Amino acid sequence: xxxxxxxxxxxxxxxxxxxxxxxxxxxxxxxxxxxxxxxxxxxxxxxxxxxxxxxxxxxxxxxxxxxxxxxxxxxxxxxxxxxxxxxxxxxxxxxxxxxxxxxxxxxxxxxxxxxxxxxxxxxxxxxxxxxxxxxxxxxxxxxxxxxxxxxxxxxxxxxxxxxxxxxxxxxxxxxxxxxxxxxxxxxxxxxxxxxxxxxxxxxxxxxxxxxxxxxxxxxxxxxxxxxxxxxxxxxxxxxxxxxxxxxxxxxxxxxxxxxxxxxxxxxxxxxxxxxxxxxxxxxxxxxxxxxxxxxxxxxxxxxxxxxxxx
Length: 310
Known about the structure:
GO molecular function: dioxygenase activity
Strand order of the largest sheet: 2-3-4-1-13-16-15-14
Oligomer: single chain
Largest sheet: 8 strands, mixed
Strand content: 25-35%
Number of domains: 1
InterPro entries: Extradiol_RC_dioxygenase (IPR052537), Glyas_Bleomycin-R_OHBP_Dase (IPR029068), Glyas_Fos-R_dOase_dom (IPR004360), VOC_core (IPR037523)
CATH class: Alpha Beta
Pfam family, one: Glyoxalase
Order of helices and strands: EHEEEEHEEEEHEEEEHEEEH
Distance between the termini: 44 Å
Radius of gyration: 18 Å
CATH superfamily: 2,3-Dihydroxybiphenyl 1,2-Dioxygenase, domain 1
Structural class: alpha+beta
Protein name: Ring-cleaving dioxygenase
Number of helices: 5
Helix content: 10-25%
CATH topology: 2,3-Dihydroxybiphenyl 1,2-Dioxygenase, domain 1
Keywords: Dioxygenase, Oxidoreductase
CATH architecture: Roll
């Protein structure tokens, strides 16, 4: 069993409109936009990152906003819900805030003893806010949400699968252990993790498969401290039979990718070098940053990418 993985690093999804996506995460959820860059493989599309003050691994939600993208469909073989940790006793505040923002139906529920609010993002994305006592991670204090009500980072994700056995075994190999079962849910977590260290597997054998599109999670990334730890994980995964990509430089972290037995795309990302490698912390997410391979496109991209205000 591996011990290098400490929980989630980031979750990357797809959206239909960059401005709407930005407004929801910065003005409604109160996260900070920590990077405005472009998709490595499709530079005509933004890649937007939202998180805490510095984009700490385990706090970062990222999006590819593809104009005119088709709507995604919930189903198996995908991440169905991303859960954020909020302070204990804050759900009344969030219920009112989400209602005022027109977030649609907000549902109260309890999962494994934790109080939660479930709601949808602008593209039907599945989200939950989970009350977590004594979370040591600091919420972003300079946005519209008070720090004592703010999001501390991820709590975890839910993966909807037709068969959870093989994915559960993979996660155990990655350092997770089973914490409990509740109905169709299997909860796994990492002891001493980074706070974003819960994965729930929802096993629905007869459900339709998900269809990728707006509101879909593209991949979920797990955090390791550095490239040395990443190399150890990559070797172990290859020896276990996973088809893992070479290491890819993503400017703010190094990444490897592989597809899980249940169909979800996993990434292992390094905590280094971080989002302040090319911007001062006071100005994260303000300027358009381009990967070196796309630097020659700046003049065109600055004309064709829709401006994002706020």
